[in-house]
């Protein structure tokens, strides 16, 4: 023990010198106490466990749209499979349409209340002065034997009480009849579904989503996920197979989740031939419904009906769009393991841009996302044009963006294409990697936006896209109102959820990929996460653990700071000291001569402002024997001095002003005009979370030092990143310079 104590003394003395003087915040402590502990269902590696289970719900639905009354009616049969270890005496179903009933809050006052001069639509959002019917009428709920089942409705959730408990490992079948008035999308703020009316030709596009009573998730982490639907936090859903029959006016065209089963009944022979041609067209879209055919449908307005039949396997939801206004094109996309039909449906108001760009954008998304995760597994991917929104469902998405008089600005076109890429990308997150949107919006929006931005960068390099600099204004905001990413969906401000749930997770993943882990290793880990959890229900902890498990990188410090706090990155290069070792064969005047670069400034030996005073000469002594402790070998003092001959030693002090620890990238600018980039891992902050001092040996003399020169880490204040400090130009100085021109 005595020997160990003697050997540890010098180490302890060193650590005392480095110790921080402010309170320790445990920035590198594990996040085990912040996420659910591993168990037999979810392992410590982030993978599903040997006893992982999830429920399943299969649906058979018959629905019809009454175009005169705008009422959607339906009957459905649900087969629910209880794969849990629990017996269930009741079931919870989601009734999202009830959120449109008066009394449920809209987002009308999210950006402020009543003000003078506000327009009528804003006032409608606030007051719902024009009232309209909304919500479900449940006609019946019966078990497989035709016996009535009791149900209790609590706003957007319905509890179905079973006559006999559903045992673990068993399944049951029950049926429902229902109807609801389809709402006018223009009457809501942030409306995701409903109808869009076109007064010029007295026609409608129906976007039918969140439309049938559907099973809530029952899982191993919280039992029933039966939180109310409050519009912002979206959905948690079970996978299943769907057989859906949709009855609409005869001249309507229907786009839907799944594969069309009765094309011979709803399409002409010519249209079927075009569809067959599209299945072999890999370079450009083929029109299935032409502009002329859509125009004829609009004029005729048939009073007859026809039924479209669709089948979808292993999806967590079903949506469709219906209109006589639709133009329809399609193109085949070849993936390594699958050929997908990319399809676009749009009214003539979308021409010419939608015909030029929509299906192309689907193709680009399918290819990049498949490469980054796993091949798109479904037979079709559809983009439907609508106004104002982008909204995703399995195999189909509703996407805004329209030209005006056939023209569209570059910015608007970028927004339209980006929306299509983003919503198609949601097929992976959360439609297949099925996270809980109602609880953790960032797990679907953030991960999806990350690959969406990668798609834009690779396929549309002329477009603007998210980088770490994009999030700086948000992270520089008022800490009193900022929330961490790990905030549940409905508790975020509407004015902030875009930054917090989309952009900030995206930037975090970009930093992990580009600057912390490295592209190749990160890409393998991200793909591992996607494949582990496809068709399953991951939680945040499963993502965090997988990224660590698949990279052999301790990332708890990153997850803790980036996801669980509102700290920001602000690294200050507070000081750089320049030294040279005293050499006996040179006189003191030569050793202290100034550098060839002269920078004006007030210097002191303790706090230099620049390098104009030259290096400080330090004396290096031989190591005494007692400093080696029990070691018998000795440094070669002569060789040591030889290696330091005429070398420059720079001591760099960096302060963590923002509170968020990050790796440090240093740019060295030398007096000969060359530069060098050096990277230090985040581990340098382990012993002192507020300030670190590092020493560097350089052959060349340095003229300037910069932190984060390529803006990799979202540093909120670049003015303190340089030594000598770069003075920011005042507004008055900029005005004077401008006046001289």
Automatic annotation (TrEMBL):
Composition bias, Polar residues: 717-729
UniProt name for this protein: M1 family metallopeptidase
Keyword Signal: yes
Signal peptide: 1-19
A single cellular component GO annotation: extracellular space
One GO biological process term: peptide catabolic process
GO molecular function: metalloaminopeptidase activity; peptide binding; zinc ion binding
Coiled coil stretches, renumbered: none
Region ranges (Disordered): 712-741
One Pfam family recorded for the sequence: Peptidase_M1
Record domain Peptidase M1 membrane alanine aminopeptidase: where: 407-562
Chain intervals with Basic and acidic residues compositional bias: 731-741
Cited PANTHER family: PROTEASE M1 ZINC METALLOPROTEASE, PUROMYCIN-SENSITIVE AMINOPEPTIDASE-RELATED
Key words of the record: Signal
């Amino acid at each position: 023990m005595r020997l160990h104590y003697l050997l540890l003394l010098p180490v302890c003395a060193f650590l005392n010198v480095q110790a921080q003087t402010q309170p320790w915040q445990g920035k590198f402590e594990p996040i085990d106490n912040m996420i659910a502990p591993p168990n037999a269902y979810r392992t410590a590696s982030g993978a599903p466990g040997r006893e992982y289970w999830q429920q399943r719900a299969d649906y058979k639905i018959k629905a019809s749209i009454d175009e005169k009354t705008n009422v959607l009616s339906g009957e459905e049969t649900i087969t629910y499979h209880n794969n849990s270890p629990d017996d269930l005496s009741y079931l919870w179903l989601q009734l999202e349409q009830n959120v449109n009933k008066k009394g449920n809050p809209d987002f009308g006052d999210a950006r402020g209340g009543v003000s003078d001069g506000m327009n009528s639509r804003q006032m409608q959002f606030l007051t719902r002065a024009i009232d309209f019917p909304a919500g479900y009428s449940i006609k019946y709920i019966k078990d497989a034997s035709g016996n009535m089942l009791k149900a209790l409705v609590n706003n957007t959730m319905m509890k179905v009480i079973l006559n006999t408990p559903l045992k673990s490992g068993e399944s049951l079948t029950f049926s429902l009849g229902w109807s609801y008035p389809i709402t006018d999308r223009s009457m809501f703020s942030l409306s995701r579904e409903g109808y869009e009316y076109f007064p010029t030709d007295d026609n409608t596009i129906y976007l039918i989503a969140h439309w049938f009573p559907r099973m809530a998730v029952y899982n191993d982490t919280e039992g029933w996920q039966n939180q109310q639907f409050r519009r912002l936090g979206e959905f948690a859903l079970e996978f299943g197979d769907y057989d859906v029959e949709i009855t609409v006016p005869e001249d309507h065209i229907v786009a839907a989740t799944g594969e069309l089963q009765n094309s011979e009944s709803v399409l002409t022979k010519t249209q079927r031939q075009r569809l067959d041609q599209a299945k072999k067209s890999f370079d450009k879209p083929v029109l299935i419904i032409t502009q002329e055919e859509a125009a004829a449908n609009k004029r005729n307005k048939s009073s007859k009906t026809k039924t479209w039949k669709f089948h979808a396997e292993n999806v967590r939801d079903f949506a469709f769009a219906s209109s006589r206004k639709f133009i329809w094109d399609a193109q085949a996309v070849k993936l390594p393991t699958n050929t997908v039909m990319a399809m676009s449906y749009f009214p003539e108001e979308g021409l010419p841009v939608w015909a030029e760009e929509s299906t192309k954008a689907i193709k680009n998304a399918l290819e990049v996302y498949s490469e980054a995760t796993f091949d798109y597994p479904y037979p079709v991917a559809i983009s439907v044009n609508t106004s104002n929104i982008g909204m995703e469902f399995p195999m189909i998405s509703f996407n805004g963006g329209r030209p005006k008089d056939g023209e569209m600005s570059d910015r608007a076109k970028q927004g339209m294409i980006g929306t299509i890429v983003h919503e198609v990308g949601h097929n992976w997150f959360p439609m297949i990697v099925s996270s809980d949107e109602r609880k953790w919006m960032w797990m679907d929006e953030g991960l999806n936006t990350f690959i969406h931005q990668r798609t834009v960068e690779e396929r549309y390099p002329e477009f603007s896209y998210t980088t770490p600099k994009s999030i700086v204004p948000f992270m520089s905001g008022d800490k009193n109102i900022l929330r961490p990413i790990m905030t549940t969906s409905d508790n975020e401000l509407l004015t902030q959820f875009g930054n917090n749930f989309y952009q900030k997770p995206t930037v975090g993943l970009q930093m992990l990929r580009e600057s912390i882990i490295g592209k190749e290793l990160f890409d393998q880990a991200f793909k591992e996460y996607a494949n582990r959890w496809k068709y399953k229900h991951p939680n945040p902890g499963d993502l965090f653990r997988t990224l660590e498990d698949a990279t052999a990188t301790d990332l708890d410090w990153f997850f803790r700071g980036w996801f669980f706090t509102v700290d920001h990155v602000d690294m200050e290069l507070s000081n750089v000291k320049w030294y040279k070792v005293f050499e006996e064969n040179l006189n003191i005047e030569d050793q202290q001569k100034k550098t060839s670069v002269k920078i004006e400034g007030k210097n002191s030996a303790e706090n230099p402002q620049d390098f104009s005073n030259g290096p400080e000469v330090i004396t290096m002594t031989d190591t005494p024997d007692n400093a080696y402790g029990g070691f018998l070998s000795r440094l070669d003092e002569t060789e040591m001095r030889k290696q330091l001959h005429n070398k420059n030693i720079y001591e760099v002090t960096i302060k963590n002003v923002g509170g968020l620890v990050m790796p440090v990238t240093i740019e060295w600018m030398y007096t000969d005009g060359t530069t060098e980039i050096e990277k230090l891992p985040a581990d340098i902050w382990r012993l002192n979370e507020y300030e670190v001092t590092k020493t560097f040996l350089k052959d060349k003399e340095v003229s300037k030092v910069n932190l984060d020169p390529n803006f990799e880490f979202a540093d909120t204040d670049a003015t303190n990143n340089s030594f000598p400090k770069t003075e920011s130009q005042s507004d008055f100085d900029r005005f004077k310079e401008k006046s001289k021109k």
